[in-house]
Every structure is written in C-alpha cells, then in structure tokens.
Amino acid sequence: MLEFKLPSIGSDMDEGKLLEWKIKPGDRVKKGQVVAIVDTSKAAVDVEIWFDGMVHELLIEPGETIPVGTVLATLLAPGEKAGAPPAGRRKVSPAARKHAEALGIDVDSLVGRGPGGAVTLADVDAAAAQRSPAKPAAVSDRQAEMRKAIAAAMSRSKREIPHYYLSEAIAMERAQAWLSEANAGRPITGRLLMAALQLKAVALALKKYPEMNGFFRDGAFQPVAAAHIGVAISMRQGGLIAPAIHDVGEKSLDEVMRDLADLVKRARAGSLKSSEMSDPTITVTNLGEQGVEAVYGVIYPPQVALVGFGRIAPRPWVDAVGGLCVAPVLTASLAADHRVSDGHRGALFLAELRDWLQQPEKL
Amino acid sequence: MKISYREAMRQAMHEALAGDPRVFLMGEDVGKYGGTYAVSKGFIEEFGPERIRDTPLSELGFVGAGIGAALGGMRPIVEVMTVNFSLLALDQIVNTAAVLRHMSGGQFSVPLVVRMATGAGRQLAAQHSHSLENWYAHIPGIRVLAPATIGDARGMLAPALADPDPVIIFEHAQLYNLEGELADDWQCDIAHAAVRREGSQVSVFAYGGCLPKAMQAAAELADAGIDAEVVDLRVLRPLDTETIAASVRKTHRAVVVDEGWKSGSLAAEVVARIVEDCFYDLDAPPVRVCSAEVPIPYARHMEEAALPQPAKIVAAVKELLNA
Q1: B210-223 and B310-320 are packed helices; what angle lies between their axes, rounded to 10 degrees?
Q2: Min CA distance, A59 vs chain B (Å)?
Q3: Are residues A105 and A18 in the same domain?
Q4: Which of A96, A351, B4, B209 has the most CB atoms around it within 10 Å of its CB?
Q5: B138 noted as active-site residue
Q6: d(CA A110, nearest CA chain B) in Å
Q7: Last residue of some domain: B129, B147, B181?
C-alpha cells in the first residue's frame, strides 16, 4: 500500500487546505498526474502525485486543513492487491451513525479516526463543523496570508543566509537585434520576449557554476543538476509567487517562452502545479518593466541564489574598439549564499551570463 | 472522622445488635476469635454468646440455621468466612433462602443477611481467591451488595437487615484496611449505583475491590488529559441499569472492571445491558477488564498479573479513545 502525503509546496508551507479531489477510489493514476487541489497560503495549487498506482481510499475530506506530511490517500502499487478485503460493513459507531443521520451527514463520506478506523462521534462533529458556515476565504484573508508567508520566508532568508551581492552591466545590442529579427517572421502570439533569453542564459551559465543551483538543507548544500528556474511573478492583488519552469537549460527558447506565458497565466488564474511550487532551484526576478535600473533580491530559502534583471535602457557605452557610443544596457545582479559560494565564483557566473547574452543565436 | 472499612463494618453491626434484639451474629470464629477479619472483635464480651454465636465448620448447616431463625422472626447476620466456603452453602442460599417466598405463595419471607469476604490479591492461592459475586447476582430472590467505600461499609447493613428478603453482602478482603473519612451522611440505600467520580469521555464501571483501582486509574487518566467517570455498581442484584445507562449516554464509552473471570462475568451482564439500552449512544465497543481465565496463582507477581490493575484499566481506556 502506498501513502500519498501532503507535499510541502514551497519551503514556507506547513499546512494546506484540501479544496478538491481530482480522483476517486478505484482510479488508476500516473506519476505527475494532478490528483488534488490544495490551497496554500499563497495560492490554490494543483497537486501532482509522484508515483503510479490505483486509488484505494481517500482519507481527507475537501475543506479540511491538514499539516504537511498528512496521509491524504492510500493507493495500491501497480500489481498490488488490496490486502484484507474490506470486511463487509465499514466501522461506524452506533452513536456516530445516529448523530450523522440527525445532522443529515452521509457517514460513508466520513473518514474514521476512532479505534480501528471506526467513524466516531468526533468524526461526525468534525464534518458538521466543516460544513457549517464554511467561511469563504476572503480575498483579504488570502492577501494577509500571502503577506505572512512572504514575511516568514524572507525573514528566514535574511536571518539564515549570508547574502553577497554582485552586479554587471551587460550590453544588450546584439540580443535586441537578434530578438527583433527572430520575431519579425513570427505571428504576434509566437513572439519571444527578452525574458526568455535571460532565463535560458541563466540556465546555461548555471551548468558551469552549479553552486548557484540547488538547496541548502540540514547544514549542507545539495546541488541540483537541472535548472528549474523560479520566475518571480507579481500578483495583481499584491504579493508574489515564484513557480518553476523546469529544465530550462534543456529547452529551446520557444519552449521556454511558451512555458513562461503559460506559467504567468496560470499563476494569476490560481492553478499552479505542486511541482512548480516546490522545486525551483534558483529564482530569477525581473523588475525592468517597472523601470528600475537594478534589483538586488532576497534569496528564497532553501535556494542559494537569485538573479535579478533591471530595465534595458540606452546608456553611454564603450564599444569593443574603445569608442564611446550609446547602447542598450541591462544590469544583471546576483544575490548568492556565501555559505555555498564565494564572490569570486559569483563574479565568474555573472560573466558567464553576460557572455551568453552576447551570443543570442546560441541560446 | 477517619476510620477503616473494618471499623465501619464493625460500627454497623454494633448499631444493629444494640438497636434490635432480633439481630444476632452467627458464623465461624465470629465470637471468641473476634472474626477472621476482626470485624466482630469484642462483640462476644458485650453481647454474650447467645447473640454472637460461634458455629461448627459447616456452612450448609449454619446458613440453614440462619434461614430457620429468619423464618422464625429473628434478623440473623450470618458470616460465611469467605465466598470460597459459601459454595458449601449454595443449596441453602439458592434453593431455600432465595425461593421460599415464591414456594410458599408469599406466606414466608427470609429476612436473612449473609456476609462474606471475597476476592484475591493476598497470595491465598487458587482455592481461597475466588470472586464469585456474579454467581449470586444470577439468582432471583436475593439482593447482592458490594460495599466498596467506608460509607457503604457503614451504611449498607441497616437497610439490608430491614429488607424482608435475603441479602448477601460481599466484603472484598483487600478493603478491610482501607481508611477514609466517614461522611456525616453515610446513610445510604441498597438500590442504586453511585457515580464516584464525574467524567465526560468514558465511563469506568467497577465494584468492590476493583473500585479503588478504577479510581486510581481515573486519576492517572486525568493526568493524561482524559476525563473518566467512575461508577460504583454497589448493588450487584438487582443492577441499577438506569444509572449505568445514564453514564454511558453521557460519555458514549464504557469500560467494565470486574475481578471475576470474563466468561459469564458480572461484567458481561453490565455490557449486555449497556448494549441493550444504549446501543445508539455507543461511540466504541464496550470493553471489559477482568481476571485472567486461570486459577488465581499463588506467586505474587503472577497473582498481580492475573488480576485487574489500574495500569490495565488505563490501557483499556486509552485504546478505546485511540489515545
């Protein structure tokens, strides 16, 4: 029997509210399939299962708030037979059955937490409490919750992570020229944004400097081979969220662009997947649109680095042959965890990033 | 005033002997020896050998004599040393005392009180450690009492003597040295069970020697955050089903503690009534904590293991509550 537990969707999450099951007992599920929607403090997230199997029993009712790690459902592994055949009747205490009937609650819909999994009065009362005036999660609540979550994560970051900051001005003439040309032949919906190039460049630079990519956990750095880049997305009602685009380094610019557009749309619609929320290995934030020149970010723990991009603006620039000119320039910054890497490596990483942006055709 | 259970019982008998010339005490070693459990110490000097009568070692004989005296208008208190020896008097108790009113069409009644010690826990081995209260509680025509507190030891005898039909009083041998306050209002009835400790999460039913164990268990459970009610059955026949049911309706869970063996035990009867009367109030199956189904061992550690103990009661309650 396999246990499907509530995953931690982001390091700052310690509980979640089950909003909806997408599966029912008897369903076959595949690894990666969305099986439930869980409300975290930040967003309603589509939770994916991480193994194949057949749903045996759903243990948690929609509407319940449960801590991370709670078993949500049991599943039979492929080929596994249900152990003891369900012994006829479910265990429901007589008092619970009577009470449920009086309240009009279907005992078969309840999860038993009494001895031997029996449904008891307490289970009926809990269900009744859930059902009665379920306070709608008001938007202001959600915002307050998100604020609290951000506060907790960022406080932890600044408390625990010794940040160091580096920045580099990068000429973007070539990248812009390449982008204009590439987009010229595309329909509007298929056009690339500079953000896609930036993300891809970051991913490629990470290949050479893996100490920027991964997690710092239990006193040690755990590098991750793939670049799952968390993209900081501002929410319209305030707050932000940084879900991941997976394996950016292995994707084409078109794929990265498509994923990025999809992610922004879904983040704002509130239908992110649990894996997108839980496994970014580095975060990229881009405040260029808002007009700032540079951004020095706060690392999202347990990640160990954050790359910030400011706006691309025309500036005086010294070209390759020493002549003064006006060129579009981008300030890229790196906030990195000094426990994992040193400024020297950080500088090399930024230089690598700069170099990639000089050869957009290779991205 | 703080007194022992033994002293409370002695006071009750003294009061009865002093207050009613029809009352006399009869049994093995009740006179010169002062009673095997020293309950009638000094009585023979005070009331004389006519009213404090030492008998031969024949339970069948002297219980029968007691029945005859009761039929003849006396109010005998017959002390059978222990329940173990009362088996020799079963014919008189079950076949005569309990049924004479019926057999005589209501012409005769048998206002007899039989007292006997009961129970294990003192390393007296298998022949002298029985807990057979339920045998007597099975029989229509007799009332069976199990005083488990100082107050009941003091208060139960008077209404038992006033009862026109036979009454058997079981005194658990381990209770005699129990000490406690005798409340001013010790007078009591012999009809009702008593809630000895109020609680909300589980009802623990016990009687006789198991009551102090149940109270101790409840105290330990309270430390663990579990609010247990303790109900002293007191009257084993007729059982006070109303009080039992009211408690279960409140707590929805029942643990019945009984020093008798589980099969055919008094606990079985209590559980049956709970299920009959409170089925739809039960939030968990009723549980029994009884003696192990073996002859009671002599060795102390084995005897302790065979009997209900506070730790077993605590464990049973916790399992019931999934705690």
Answers
A1: 50
A2: 17
A3: yes
A4: A96
A5: no
A6: 15
A7: B181
> Are B16 and B105 in the same domain?
yes
A87 inside domain: yes
CATH number at residue B32: 3.40.50.970
**Nearest residue on chain B to A122, alpha-carbon basis:** B283
In this prediction, residues B73-81 reach a mean pLDDT of: 97
How many domains are contained in chain A?
2
Contacts of B322 in chain A (CB under 8 A): 113-115
Interchain CB distance below 8 Å, A94 and B322: no
Of A95, A97, A115, the CB nearest to B252: A95
User: Has residue A143 been placed in a domain?
Assistant: no
Any B CB within 8 A of A219 CB: no
Give the structural domain span for A11.
Answer: 2-131
CB B291 within 8 Å of CB B307: yes
**A118 CB within 8 Å of a chain B CB:** yes
A272, two tokens: 């992110």
Single out the residue of A326, A279, A349, A22 nearest to residue A171, CA to CA. A326
| Residue B220 clears pLDDT 70, i.e. is over it | yes
Q: What is the pLDDT of residues A295-313, one digit of tens each?
A: 999 999 999 999 999 999 9
- Is there a contact between B120 and B296 (Cβ–Cβ < 8 Å)? yes
Residue A146 lies in a domain: no
How far apart, in Å, are the Cα atoms of B278 and each of A92, A312, B31, B224, B274? 15, 78, 48, 27, 5
Q: What are phi and psi of A270, to 5 degrees?
A: 80, 40
CATH number at residue A321: 3.30.559.10
Q: The domain that contains B265 carries what CATH number?
A: 3.40.50.920
pLDDT at position A85: 45
Same domain, B174 and B203: no
What is the rounded distance in angstroms from the CA atom of residue B125 to the CA atom of residue A281?
A: 73
**In this complex, do B280 and A94 lie within 8 Å of one another by their Cβ atoms?**
yes
| The total number of structural domains that make up chain B | 2
Predicted pLDDT of residue A189: 83
> Is B259 one of the catalytic residues?
no
Residue B42 within a domain: yes
CB-based contact, A223 to chain B, within 8 Å: no
CA atoms within 13 A on the CB side of A234: 9
Report the pLDDT averaged over residues B24-50. 96
Last residue of a domain, one of B181, B210, B242: B181
Q: How confident is the model at residue B269 (pLDDT cuts 50, 70, 90)?
A: very high
Are A197 and A284 contained in the same domain? yes
ipTM > 0.85?
no
* Series of mean pLDDT values for 10-residue runs along chain A (363 residues): 82 80 88 87 82 87 85 84 60 91 86 85 87 57 79 90 95 92 87 92 94 92 93 83 92 92 85 82 89 91 94 90 91 95 95 94 88
* Residue B95 is assigned to a structural domain of this protein: yes
Structure tokens at B154: 């003091």
DSSP 8-state assignment for residue A236: T
Cβ-based contacts of A121 with chain B (< 8 Å): 252, 283
Same domain, A115 and A193: no
CA distances from A254 to A54, A288, B117 (A): 36, 21, 94
Cβ pair A94:B282 closer than 8 A: yes
At position A194, the amino acid (one-letter code) is M
Is B187 inside a domain boundary? no
Which structural domain range is residue B296 located in? Answer: 194-320
